[in-house]
Amino acid sequence: xxxxxxxxxxxxxxxxxxxxxxxxxxxxxxxxxxxxxxxxxxxxxxxxxxxxxxxxxxxxxxxxxxxxxxxxxxxxxxxxxxxxxxxxxxxxxxxxxxxxxxxxxxxxxxxxxxxxxxxxxxxxxxxxxxxxxxxxxxxxxxxxxxxxxxxxxxxxxxxxxxxxxxxxxxxxxxxxxxxxxxxxxxxxxxxxxxxxxxxxxxxxxxxxxxxxxxxxxxxxxxxxxxxxxxxxxxxxxxxxxxxxxxxxxxxxxxxxxxxxxxxxxxxxxxxxxxxxxxxxxxxxxxxxxxxxxxxxxxxxxxxxxxxxxxxxxxxxxxxxxxxxxxxxxxxxxxxxxxxxxxxxxxxxxxxxxxxxxxxxxxxx
Length: 364
Fold this sequence. Notes:
One of its GO terms (biological process) is protein maturation. This protein has 364 residues and is of the alpha/beta class. It is built from 16 helices and ten strands.
């Protein structure tokens, strides 16, 4: 199938690997931002085929993983309300709060439903005017356009029983936070192709220039990732630090103008808490005042709810590329997919889940 098989072509992959081995003369540390890229790298053993001098570290680009614990607790509180239909993408239902998850709330009688789009949640609100319908609006810039569109449409139609619990975050501020960290080792980035498809890559150019790091938007298939790694190493070896697009079939410099316009219309940039990382200034989206009546956090008065992470969970260091999942003492012991300490073990894009599912450096 075009755009699938050709980007898994073994000969193309071997050619790219040979080129990477040929150009690499020094140690380099490269971070793939996206959790989907992490899973592809571990599943295909890409990190094990690279020169020993190249280390891939895993970044905070899993939206489920970086959703702060207090947001999970607020979601749990809202979902337990009798007159609420709480809707979410399926990958949020297993994310642990302090003592339970959304599946447990559903087993206790809460009306918790999986939807495939926030517009599905809006339709549930239309169909159930006697109920309050809440959508858990989680994600990076990739999900922001659809979440914004659902709010915009609700306002346009006057669907007042619909609201969103917002936990939207952005990639560039996270990059800046990682690069500004005293212990940072990251020398180059593979940028998430789907985020760049929405936002473009113009906003990465100041980051590359300020911190002198190459940033390469790329895709998720083995050939995509190897091409991205090669483009990053080629720059590192000669001291260049530019944004080089290696996902041109999907990504343009300006991105999707219609998508960014609806984001700007409905959301404003705010400070956001990141699970395991902490507060990153100007790193997320919140509803503008014109749409404040659709803010579930305010509607249900749950802003005061706070929570503390398990002291055993080291997912914050994993999300910052400071620790590999198998370096956490609790990995595959106290923390498993059946009994997770953090979201990185249960998310389909979590680095800990990738290491566990593909038996990286441990025997189940």
